[in-house]
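Sample pair:
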Amino acid sequence: MITQHHIDSYATDGAVMIPGLLSDWVDIIAQGIDQNMAEPGPYAAENTTATDTGRFFDDYCNWPRIPAFEKTLRDSPAGQAAAQIMQSQTAQFFHDHVLVKEPGTSKKTPWHQDSPYYFVEGRQTVSMWVPVDPVGLDSCPQFIKGSHHWDKLVLPVRWLDDSGFYPDANDYLPVPNPDAEPDRYSLMSWTMQPGDAILFDYRTVHGAPANQGPHRRRAFSMRWVGDDARYVERPGRTSPPYPGHDMQAGQRLREDWFPVLWPRPSDRTA
């Protein structure tokens, strides 16, 4: 399902949409999202303030306790697709992320890169964003084409109030504002069906519009790393934080916490 054209577009643009990648997994992913929302984890967040309308829920690192998520990670084509798009021999799972914008939600997802929030460094990374509802251009995430090639990372911000995530903003590029400077950036976005997937580099700058329409926008995101990924120290608490991981700078991520799911373990031991 991953073609050379997809691989080349990913390398050049930093993001690509794969129609139908997980279309056979929509129902089970939706079951997992329902369980996650009914039983939030310790990192669950409501990303709206008193002046916002609707509800923007997100939560992460729940796959070990939600069977639908674990089954998707282990048995769906996601791991193989991740390895192929990263051009990596392996696909190691970093974390899951549920993002739900209910109808009438005014809160936008701030422009950001995934990379500076994480304690991972490497060229072989991919976030895989999969909706379980139809998504129009008015609510689909938007990606700044080629921003994964920028020479510095963008300042990470807190989603609730857009405040800086780390103490020294001078170490980062300012958060871009394509809404105010539409001619400065080339944006990518897609109309999507349930089970389609956007694959994007951790360094690709992206954000998402509000969901002012009458339909829910539920998405399950899977974060993968490849052969060259290594642990890196950040100047503060990362997101996710993974307390007690005991890794040192330059090490591969520990496989008992971050399993290598492609090739599948059964294939590696056969």
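Residues 155 and 172 are 5 Å apart (CA to CA).
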